[in-house]
Structure formats: C-alpha cells, structure tokens
Design brief:
About 75% of the residues lie in helices and about 5% in strands. It is mainly α.
Length: about 160
C-alpha cells in the first residue's frame, strides 16, 4: 500500500520536458484532425483536448518544477484543475457568452478551440509551476493554486472576445 503522505523525489527533468512537448503537440494535432473538412469530427475529442489535456500538461509542469511531491498533492491538484475548468467555463459562458445566434463555422470553431487549449494550458501550467517553485512558502504556493479560477476566467474572456 502506498502512503499518501510520502513525498517522492522527481529527478528526471528531461523526461518531463519531452512529455510536456509531446502532450502540447498531441493536443494541437488532435484539434487539427478534428478541424474543418475532417471525416472524424467529434465533439468529445475537442472536449477532451480543451478540458482534460491541459490538466495533464499542468501536472507535468508542476512535477517539472517541484523537487518532491506526494500522491495526495497531485490528486488534489488534478481535482482542483478539473472543477476549475468546468465551473469557469460555465461562468464564462454566462459572462462573456456567444454574441450571435448563428453558428460561426468550422474554421472559427477550430480557432476558438486551439486558443482555449493554449490559454488553459498557459494558465494552469503557469500558475501550477509558479506554485511548485514556492516550496519553502506553502501559503504562497497554495495561494497561487487558489487563483487558478480567476486566471481561467481571464483566459476565457480573452479567447471569447478577441479570438471568437
């Protein structure tokens, strides 16, 4: 049985750098394959790339910066990121929602999905990495993790007003 309070040392930064790069490229490729003129267009694939893949990237960024982690810490970060993305998405829809009743087209949808993927990845990865770097100051570390919903709302605002 694994003790959840045990802290594990992460020492392979090159492996995590490669994983971050592969996940980022995989997300962009999957969105491109799901783009216009594709025979495999599926809403679930776009939903996976926009909502789930940034969490994996953020955790990889967190592991890249943190010197030691616990299983409980990673689990809490995954759950926090998942619910942050979901709740911020709903709030952002009502705050900054669609401006027109017509469907903008497949190319505009692809552009919006790519921008949402990159913005969500930047917010989650950036704030989780900044929090992981503050190991000697736990209040600042968890404070940076706590502001992730505000960062997500800002990212949605930029994407929905500027890109869409």
């Amino acid at each position: 049985m694994v003790d959840v309070r045990t802290r594990y040392e992460i020492g392979n930064e090159r492996l995590l750098d490669g994983l971050i790069g592969v996940l980022l490229v995989a997300g962009l490729v999957l969105l491109a394959l799901n783009g216009p003129f594709s025979s495999v267009r599926d809403l679930r694939l776009a939903n996976f790339v926009v909502n789930v893949l940034p969490i994996a990237l953020a955790i990889a960024c967190y592991l890249r910066v943190a010197s030691t982690v616990s299983v409980l810490e990673i689990g809490a970060l995954v759950i926090w990121a998942y619910y942050t993305i979901r709740v911020s998405g709903v709030i952002a829809f009502f705050l900054f929602g669609v401006r027109s009743a017509s469907y903008p087209g497949e190319l505009a949808e692809l552009r919006r999905n790519v921008a949402l993927f990159l913005a969500t990845t930047a917010v989650l990865g950036g704030l989780y990495s900044a929090g992981a770097a503050q190991e000697d100051r736990p209040l600042l570390k968890w404070g940076l993790v706590a502001v992730v919903p505000l960062g997500q709302l800002a990212a949605y605002a930029v994407v929905l007003y500027v890109v869409a």
